Amino acid sequence: MPRSVIFPTTGRSSGSLSNVIWDTVIQHGGSYLLSLTGFWGDQGDGDGLEVYDLTFMNWHGYNSDNSRPTIRLLCSVNDTCADIVVDDVALWTDSGDDVTWTCENAFGSGAYSESDGHAGDSYTTTTTITATPTYSISTMANDLSTPFPSTQSFTISTVPTSFYPGATPISSLLKLTTAGGLA
C-alpha cells in the first residue's frame, strides 16, 4: 500500500528541491497522500531547505486514516516554498464524509495555496472538502487488500515485473521464496 510522497527535513537541513513534476499518481490507502514537509523539528542549525517550482498533477486515490490531511504542504516561514502547483487532484477517504487540506507558507496555484509570497511571509490555511470527487483508479494484480502485519513474520510477495497496470512484463525480477531468503 503506497503511503505518500513526503520530503521531511530537520531544522539542521540545508539545500534545495526544485523543478520537479509528479504526474499521474494513484494511491490506495495511506496516511498523508500528498505531503511536502519543508521543515521538521525546531533545531534550526542549518541554512534551511529552499523549495520551488514543484508540480503535483493528476493525483487520484483515497486515504485510510481520515484523522490526517489528505494534502499537507508545510514550509518554514524563513524558507518559504514557492511556485508550488497542485492541479487535477481527486483524493478522498475510505473512512468519512470529508477530507482536509492543510497548507502552511506554501505559495503557488491550485488546491488552496496562496498565489504570492516570499520568505518572511506567513500564512496557514485548512480547507475541508465535503464533495466526493469523481474518479476511476486502476489497481495492479495482487494489490494488497490489507497492510503487512507489524507484529508477526510474513512472506514478501514476488516483486511485480511492471508497475503499470496492463503493461507486458519485460523480465522476471526478484522473487523471495522464504521470509528473508532469495530464490
Structural commentary:
With 183 residues, the chain is mainly beta. The chain folds into two domains: 14-129, no CATH class; 138-183, no CATH class. Helix content is 0%, strand content 40%. The protein is built from no helices and ten strands.
Please describe the topology of this protein:
Blueprint (H helix, E strand, L loop, with lengths): L13 E15 L5 E4 L10 E16 L7 E4 L6 E13 L5 E6 L1 E4 L14 E6 L46 E3 L2 E2 L1
Descriptive keywords:
about 180 residues; mainly beta; about 40% strand; 4-stranded parallel beta sheet
The termini sit apart by 24 Å
Question: In percent, how helical is the residue content?
Answer: under 10%
Number of domains: 2
Low-confidence runs (pLDDT<50, min 5 residues)? none
Q: Give, in spatial order, the strands making up the sheet with the most strands.
A: 1-3-5-7
Brief description of this entry?
The chain is an all-beta fold and 183 residues long. The chain has no helices and 10 strands.
